[in-house]
Amino acid sequence: MFKFILKTHESKIYELASQAVKEAEMFLGSKKGKEKKEMAINFVLKYLPLPLWLKWLKPLINNALNKLIDKAIEECVEKMNEAIERLKEGT
C-alpha cells in the first residue's frame, strides 16, 4: 500500500517541493538554510493531497515520506542555485 501511495504522489511531492523552495526563499531570503528547509518540508506536508480514507494516517505518512520530501527539496534547491549561477554568468 505504501509503495502505491509513494508512486501516485511522487510527482506531486516534487512539484510541491519546487514551489516550497521558492516560497521559503522569498519569505526568508538568503542565508537561514535550516529554517528554509524546515519551512519547505512543512509546506509539502501541509499541501500533500491525500485521499480522504488516508487522512487519519497522515502523521505516519509524513514520517515515511520525510526522506523523499527532503531529497526533493535538495534537488529543487540545487536546480535553483544552478539557474542563478547561469544567470550570473550570462551578465
Explain this structure.
With 91 residues, the chain is mainly α. It has one domain (2-90). It is 82% helix and 0% strand. It is built from three helices and no strands. The protein has helices spanning 2-28, 33-47, 58-90. The longest helix has 33 residues, at 58-90. The protein is elongated, with a radius of gyration of 15 Å. It starts with a helix and ends with a helix. 18% of the residues are buried.
Short description:
The chain is mostly helical and 91 residues long. The protein contains three helices and no strands.
The main pleated sheet reads as:
none
Mean pLDDT: 82
Q: Please estimate the helix content.
A: over 70%
The assigned structural class equals mainly alpha
| Count of distinct strands | 0
Strand content: under 5%
Low-confidence parts: none
Number of domains: 1
Give me the strand/helix succession.
HHH
Backbone shape: elongated
Number of helices: 3
CA-based gyration radius: 15 Å
Ends distance: 50 Å
Write the layout of secondary structure elements.
Blueprint: H1 2-28, H2 33-47, H3 58-90
Descriptive tags:
91 residues; 3 helices; single chain; mainly alpha; 0% strand
